[in-house]
Amino acid sequence: MKTVNIDLGKRSYPIYIGSHLLDKSALVNKHLHSNQVMVVTNETIAPLYLARVMDALKAPVTETVILPDGEIYKNMQSVNRIFDALMDLRFSRNATLIALGGGVIGDTVGFAAACYQRGISFIQIPTTLLAQVDSSVGGKTGVNHPKGKNMIGAFYQPQCVIADTQVLATLDDRQFRAGIAEVVKYGLIRDADFFCWVEKNMETLLARDDDALAFAIERSCINKADVVAEDERESGLRAILNFGHTFGHAIETGTGYGEYLHGEAVAIGMCQAADLSMRLGWLQPEEVERIEKLISRAGLPASPPESLDSDRFLELMAVDKKNIDGKLRLILLEAIGHAALPQPVPIEHLQATLSEYGR
Ligand code: NAD
Ligand code: GLY
């Protein structure tokens, strides 16, 4: 088993990474503060993994909440279902919530934990690759509002993260590849050696080899932990974790949520951001090709849908949270392995990138 520590003073915590960790009961039990534990998961994951987690827990008062599956349930109704269960059982401030699932469950449960009695402990057991390398780490929790994604939330760190590589075996191929996009992102933004490693090991990763997965998750988490330790509340550096996301969010919104998985849209966005970095004279054309080739080898899309033309892209990108005073600001690459902080981009270069991608 590998352990990555996330260094946040009193709020520091370990991320455990390895195969069959769900059965290692000592791991989860040492992070409980009382005998009141509630596991929250969804209808897809419950039949696969809930019994194993329940067997591992030693707490006498262990309850479960099983939510419906899907991004549309990442909302206040789900949070209220968790509050209702906690209240019905008279769970106290020393209770612990366990999030067993992908990013939707992790974000929802983390937010419920942040709010119940002004904050109770929670543990993340992420079951998708995206959740193991990104959403379970760093303390961003929250739910969607009908008027905007992730608009209601809190920064709230878990007690620990338990990333069991073996649970990824049941994840469908498309979801798995979407997680690979975020792995590639870490190499691009701050770890050139890791980018080279992913280039050499893409096929092994896609075969879900346990050792390759554990290495990729560990290295991704080390990179995320370093960034979060420096800028927990995203007042600066943490924005680089959103590399490719401004283009990606435009694709997700412009095509209607659901057509592209988040990781797929980010994969395309990273190719577009690389192309734009080249137009600023930062990346060489061969490097842009290298990035596109790796994204394609992961079975991820590298160019946007035909339905989105340049004007629509610009309109959608204008609402990004990184923009200031109406000026579009993007995260670009100075080199493979080195992202620059968000900055304004000359519109003619951006238009050239959008045209390059054919529309
Ligand atoms: P998800 O949670 O919807 O999971 C994807 C699908 O896989 C679901 O149907 C789920 O039930 C199923 N699943 C999960 N684990 C499985 C397993 N082991 N075997 C079989 N099926 C399994 O999606 P996701 O990609 O994990 O997370 C996306 C969410 O994460 C979004 O809401 C996004 O906003 C959020 N997110 C948050 C952060 C953050 O920092 N908090 C970062 C990135 C994304
Ligand atoms: N997923 C981006 C962040 O955690 O900041």
CATH fold-type name of the largest domain: Dehydroquinate synthase-like, alpha domain
Specify the number of helices.
13
Mean pLDDT across all amino acids: 95
Number of strands: 13
The secondary structure category is alpha/beta
Sequence stretches where pLDDT stays below 50 over 5 or more residues: none
What is the 3D form?
A: globular
The molecules bound to the chains, other than polymers, are:
nicotinamide-adenine-dinucleotide, glycine
Read across the widest sheet, the strand sequence of neighbours is: 1-2-9-6-5-3-4
For the record, give the distance between the C-alpha atoms at the N and C termini, rounded to a whole number. Answer: 47 Å
Fourth-level CATH superfamily of the largest domain? Dehydroquinate synthase-like - alpha domain
What are the defining features of this structure?
seven-stranded mixed beta sheet; Dehydroquinate synthase-like, alpha domain; binds nicotinamide-adenine-dinucleotide; alpha/beta; 2 domains; Rossmann fold; 359 residues; globular; two-stranded antiparallel sheet; 13 helices; binds glycine
